[in-house]
Amino acid sequence: MAKVNKLAPGVAETMRLDRFLALASGLSRAQVRPLIKRGAVQVDGQRIRDLAFKVSTDQLVLLSDNPVSLRAPVYLMLNKPAGVVSATEDAEHQTLIDLLPDALRAGVHPAGRLDLDATGLVLLTDDGQWSHRVTSPKRLCSKRYRVELADPLSVAACEAAREQFAQGIMLRGETKLTLPAELIVDSPTQMQILVTEGRYHQVKRMFAAIGNKVVRLHREQIGALVLDADLEPGQFRPLSAAEIAQF
Q1: Rg (the chain; Cα; Å)
Q2: What is the mean pLDDT of the chain?
Q3: What is the H or E stretch that residue 55 is in?
Q4: Residues 203, 152: one domain?
Q5: What mean pLDDT do residues 222-243 have?
Q6: What is d(CA 26, CA 35) in angstroms, rounded to the nearest whole number?
Q7: Residue-wise over 83-103: b if at least 16 C-beta within 10 A, else e?
Q8: Which residues contact 72 (CB under 8 A, 6 or more apart)?
Q9: What are the CA-CA distances from residue 187 to residues 13, 74, 179, 191 (Å)?
Q10: Are the C-beta atoms of 75 and 239 separated by less than 8 Å?
Q11: Rounded-to-integer distance, Cα 182 and Cα 192, Å
Q12: What φ, ψ does residue 190 adopt, rounded to 5°?
């Protein structure tokens, strides 16, 4: 299970008091502002009622006499099971956030998504800038999927599909071709595909465009980061510093 760490000693950042408390407590800014105004917050022993007061992350901050501090940013890889929604909340289905312990949930969101019935590698973080680097279309971050098809493809059909995907294919309802994708054929029904886009249901729609249906979709890789083989469905682990730096 991932461990929650505080910021390393000596590493300080300055920010507004209301923002600091929202990040440190898991409350919204709307919730922390009245607490500040009524004097429930102390910084280094001084009671502060100014929402915009600049506080450093190495100062002692008390909220209702309880110390609060920022944890280190969260970066996780998770092996998504089928039936789990790539979202922070959902009224009908279990979400990725529901798979995390309470201590890790505040502010964490998926960096990208997988379909409800798809499985495999998902990245989770509370670092919005890092998440943007992972998901920004301009970065052309490659993603590798394993695909099982409903109908086997002949050798000729496999070669035709490989050429179509490499050239770009027009999806139903779209006006632009997909970017070039690489198709690797493991068997007549088992394929690997590498794409650099994240259009809605893209992989399924690409195979639908050549007259086939995806019955299983599993993501194994994002960029250079490969899903840890030791992670069972629903399990997660923190990323290493080297893995974080890949993005």
Answers
A1: 22
A2: 91
A3: strand 54-56
A4: yes
A5: 96
A6: 14
A7: ebbbeeeeeeeebbbebbeee
A8: 4, 5, 6, 7, 8
A9: 53, 39, 24, 7
A10: yes
A11: 8
A12: -115, 120
The answer on 80 and 32 residing in a single domain is no
The CATH number linked to 123 is 3.30.70.580
Q: Among all residues, which ones are annotated catalytic?
A: 115
- Contact (CB, 8 A) for 209 and 171: yes
Residue 93 zone, left/alpha/beta (φ > 0; ψ -120 to 50; rest) = beta
pLDDT tens by residue, 124-143: 998 888 999 999 988 899 99
The total domain count for the chain is 3
Q: Are residues 49 and 121 in the same domain?
A: no
What confidence tens digit (pLDDT) does each residue in 5-62 have?
A: 333 333 457 889 998 998 888 788 899 999 999 999 999 999 999 999 999 878 999 9
More confident residue, 3 or 239: 239
Sign of CA pseudo-dihedral 121, 124, 127, 129: positive
Specify whether the CB–CB gap between 126 and 108 falls below 8 A.
yes
| Helical spans, DSSP H, in the chain | 17-25, 29-37, 102-105, 128-135, 155-167, 202-209, 241-245
Count, residues in the chain: 247
The pLDDT value recorded for residue 12 is 55
